[in-house]
Amino acid sequence: MSSDGKKVKSLSDLPGVGQSILNKLIEAGYSSLEAVAVASPQDLSVAAGIPLTTAQRIIKEAREALDIRFKTALEVKKERINTKKITTGSQALDGLLGGGIETRTMTELFGEFGSGKTQLCHQLSVNVQLPLEKGGLGGKAVYIDTEGTFRWERIEAMSKAIGLEPDSAMNNIYYMRAINSDHQMAIVDDLQELISKDPAIKLVIVDSVTSHFRAEFPGRENLAVRQQKLNKHLHQLVRLAEMYDLAVIITNQVMARPDMFYGDPTVAVGGHTLYHVPGIRVQLKKSRGNKRIARIVDAPHLPEGEVVFAITEEGVRDAEE
Ligand code: ATP
Ligand code: MG
């Protein structure tokens, strides 16, 4: 918060940063609150050509804006308790997730084709609209579609099935098709503005987060660039989740590897990139008929285990025995 209580979202919101300083910072490559917050006063002063005392003041302001300070464990507890959950439509799956999909967190759904990643994304963009007492957040969703697999017909069917008026449910989902990785990154850059204008947005989906990056930066020789871009993109999404108390869901297709005899036969292609980013990773697997298996991967605060759920005409549900 700045002194007038307005939420600081970018460098230009800092009281110590006027237009001329802003230009100098950006020219020197310090274009975000984070970049300034972690800079040393000397470096910043020299690079941007501003007095040392000004650099010190701006860095202090940026750190306060990002809430970079020691917190007590009690404060951490209060923050975590405020975390809200969105129901998936399956009690079993909600149970596995400790109540549902969390706000302030990025959740990765990964699994092979047809494992239900996109269906779950559709379901959650409907369920987030439910009132609190029904497992929603009374909110809206943003759906960033990189593969062209979004279907309004599914939104219509899923909303009817839970008693939401389909047209208003569709009206509460902002949709954008991302045509390439640069476009995908630019959409997320611009999201802050949309979310500031419409604070009802409580869920941001990127389905799939990896496909453009894989197609545009194939092979080992491009791995470093790909990781670098993807990491930036993912961290930006994590920051959105934390800043606006919303849930972020990303999907990541992994291929089944039938040639593997032991260990996990589905290996995330480039999936290790996502390991470095904080969040919850949920693996989805196909099972018999409409059944799917979900498993949480390395989440320190959630119990290990698997659950079965189903994808039906009406959406994501508990599996029948
Ligand atoms: P990919 O990696 O290819 O994107 P995915 O994990 O996103 O795959 P989904 O598209 O979510 O997979 O799942 C597709 C499956 O969902 C279908 O194979 C089908 O079993 C189920 N499904 C899709 N639409 C319906 C429907 N209208 N009624 C019942 N089940 C459906
Ligand atoms: Mg899909």
UniProtKB/TrEMBL annotation:
GO terms for molecular function: ATP binding; ATP-dependent DNA damage sensor activity; damaged DNA binding. ATP binds at G111, E112, F113, G114, S115, G116, K117, T118. InterPro entries: AAA+_ATPase (IPR003593), DNA_recomb/repair_RadA (IPR011938), DNA_recomb/repair_RecA-like (IPR016467), DNA_repair_Rad51/TF_NusA_a-hlx (IPR010995), P-loop_NTPase (IPR027417), Rad51_C (IPR013632), RecA_ATP-bd (IPR020588), RecA_monomer-monomer_interface (IPR020587). PROSITE patterns: RECA_2, RECA_3. One of its GO terms (biological process) is DNA recombination. It comes from the Archaea. The keyword Cell cycle does not apply. Transmembrane segments: none annotated. Residues 82-254, 259-321 form the RecA family profile domain. Keywords: ATP-binding, DNA damage, DNA recombination, DNA-binding, Nucleotide-binding. PANTHER family: MEIOTIC RECOMBINATION PROTEIN DMC1_LIM15 HOMOLOG (PTHR22942:SF30), RECA/RAD51/RADA DNA STRAND-PAIRING FAMILY MEMBER (PTHR22942). NCBIfam families: PRK04301.1, recomb_radA. Involved in DNA repair and in homologous recombination. Binds and assemble on single-stranded DNA to form a nucleoprotein filament. Hydrolyzes ATP in a ssDNA-dependent manner and promotes DNA strand exchange between homologous DNA molecules. Belongs to the eukaryotic RecA-like protein family. This is DNA repair and recombination protein RadA. It comes from Sulfurisphaera tokodaii. The lineage of its organism: Archaea, Thermoproteota, Thermoprotei, Sulfolobales, Sulfolobaceae. The gene is radA.
